[in-house]
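Shipment paperwork, digital attachment
Item: protein structure file
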Amino acid sequence: MNERTENDKVGEALAAQRFGMLADIARELTGEVLFPTCFDAILRLRKELQNPDIALAHIAQIVQLEPLVAVKLMRIANSAAYAAHGQTVRDLPSAVNRLGLNIVRTTAMSVAMGEILHAKSMVAFAKFAQSLWEHSVYSAAAARVLAHTHTRLRSEEALLAGLVHDLGAFYMLYRSAQYSELRERPDTLKHLIAQWHEAIGVTLLETLGLPHEIAQASADHDHPRAVPDEPKTLADVVYVANILAGGCCVWLRLDSESQEEEVNFFREKYSEILPEIEAGASEMRSALA
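Attachment content:
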């Protein structure tokens, strides 16, 4: 009979490990947090930032592809040191323009390097993180187009909200990677992340200093809800954009017939703007190609 190793947790022991991770997350969210999102994207961002001739406009274009960098820049732009007369910026172009080339480049490079240093432990979740990043980019493009064509909301604010709506899932992947048992059983995390990433994400975005309205727009975005015939709020836009991007069943690869039905419904309802969304997502990705 093979002896069970300490790292070979199953059943109740594995469940206890998962919920121990949730307790660790709750403690960590009271302070400063830094974690990797998509390793490939952050490497490409770092390469672009090393170009001494990079223009501010191009930096603004590429930082909108990296959720954590985007949130950190928003936090600095809205800090007491940079917020003019207490005015809150609610989109990345405004934050980048407020901070200027040197601050944006230095901050983005610092966060990128920190993410790279933390990324080694996430090898087991690399494909998962890449799929989640693709979903986030498409959601951002969908939110921007949807806000522009069907609401009076600011399209760039909607893009930011769409980009960061699943930041809690990225963070849960990073925290999971700290446990050897969970790295060895990545599939056991799917339902845990599906259950907790929204609530953790809202708390995380608030902790990181994102404007309250944008943080709250990500609340319960994977939970079915009644949406007006035309989206009216930022939360409506994020919800529909997430569904147009396939919902969590896409990046979690969960079997969810009800969500697939909702995806088909919304993609048919908004079929006229899908080509514009596809073009927008492609343009965003090409910034780091």
